[in-house]
Design a protein that fits this description.
alpha/beta; 2 domains; 9-stranded mixed β-sheet; binds guanosine-5'-triphosphate; binds magnesium ion
């Protein structure tokens, strides 16, 4: 059994802060969190992302920010490692948020949908600038949450069929949180739940994290000149890795249980059959030991990742939960 690469789609309208988030997240995860690091699979890409980040932190004025994405889709591949040992690959698509608007072209939408249907984790980015006050019907239009809900319904709910046994991880990333951090956090969470009600329904199988992020607390006063000090940007990736490991761990355990049963079955046969199946039994016992070791490794990694997730709000089928192993 193999731990698959995680494909992540970050949905969010133009200007929501997707590209800025990607740059900040990469800068932080390159250095690493608790020994977990992210590195671009391609050296040129690593250089490009680092240069764009350097520009964001060192230049002042409106030029510091990334330019809104053009029509082309940009695909990024990352390795997620623990102490230089690669754990899993991440694939990321950065596209223009305009694909969510009424002005989207058919090609824009077709490319996005293709990627979305193959994704194992979804990030929904909503900008704190639209959560400054209580939400109104207008907020739905500004954030394009109705479009995002449609995408989830059509391309994930149907193709991936999340269930309690097989949950689908979603992170609602509140970008530019500096712009709304004056508001009570519980009120913001309540607003977010209203915008994405379907993700919080009982028995739905959605595993949702609501995560405020920002590139700097002081940006709210003067975004073009304030110091850049990223907050929480690593958490969505940590969660994505955690959720992928969790799903993988469940598969491993199911497989291990099959192996245990099969060994038991051989051991229950009469002595002659047991003798004949001696080499098979030996081989299966070795495989079982390998499975046990792998389950333990996965659980250890999950434990480390879950420690990072204790401060954020997680919901499973609508009920608040904590990340455990
Ligand atoms: N206050 C504040 N502003 C931010 C932050 N991050 C991004 N911005 C602002 O948001 C603007 C848009 O960010 P982008 O990252 O380009 O948004 P995008 O979602 O990639 O947009 P498209 O490429 O058009 O889809 C930036 O030009 C900044 O002005 C943040 O953490 N705080
Ligand atoms: Mg962009």
């Amino acid at each position: 059994m193999k731990l698959e690469d995680i494909k992540i789609t970050m949905l969010g309208t133009t200007g929501a802060g997707k590209t800025s988030y990607l740059l900040g997240m990469y800068a932080v995860m390159q250095t690493g969190i608790q020994g977990f690091t992210l590195a671009a699979k391609d050296m040129d890409l690593d250089l490009e992302l680092t240069e764009r980040w350097e520009k964001l932190i060192s230049v002042t004025g409106a030029d510091r920010w990334p330019t809104p994405n053009a029509a082309t889709m940009e695909y990024y591949g990352f390795d997620f490692s623990y102490g230089f040992r690669p754990l899993m690959g991440f694939q990321w698509l950065d596209y223009r948020g305009l694909a969510l608007s009424d002005r989207s072209t058919e090609q824009d939408v077709a490319d996005l949908v293709e990627y979305l249907t193959e994704s194992q984790c979804l990030f929904l980015s909503i900008s704190g600038e639209h959560l400054v006050d209580q939400i109104t019907p207008n907020t739905v239009r500004e954030i394009k949450s109705d479009r995002m809900n449609q995408f989830i319904q059509q391309y994930i709910s149907i193709t991936k069929k999340p269930t309690t046994q097989n949950p689908f991880p979603v992170v609602i990333v509140i970008t530019k949180y500096d712009l709304c951090h004056h508001r009570d956090k519980n009120e913001i969470v309540a607003d977010v739940k209203k915008l994405f009600q379907a993700l919080f329904t009982p028995n739905s199988g959605w595993l949702v994290m609501i995560c405020p992020v920002s590139l700097g607390k002081e940006l709210c006063d003067d975004p073009d000149n304030a110091n850049i000090v990223p907050v929480n940007v690593h958490l969505p990736m940590v969660f994505a890795a955690y959720a992928q490991l969790r799903a993988y761990g469940l598969k491993l355990k199911a497989n291990r249980d099959l192996q245990i049963n099969s060994i038991k079955a051989i051991k229950q046969t009469n002595p002659i059959v047991q003798l004949l199946k001696g080499s098979e039994l030996k081989e299966q016992t070795i495989q079982l030991q390998e499975s046990e070791t792998e389950v333990i490794t996965v659980e250890e990694n999950m434990k480390l990742l879950s420690q990072e997730l204790q401060q954020v709000s997680l919901y499973f089928s609508g009920s608040e939960v904590t990340a455990d192993v």
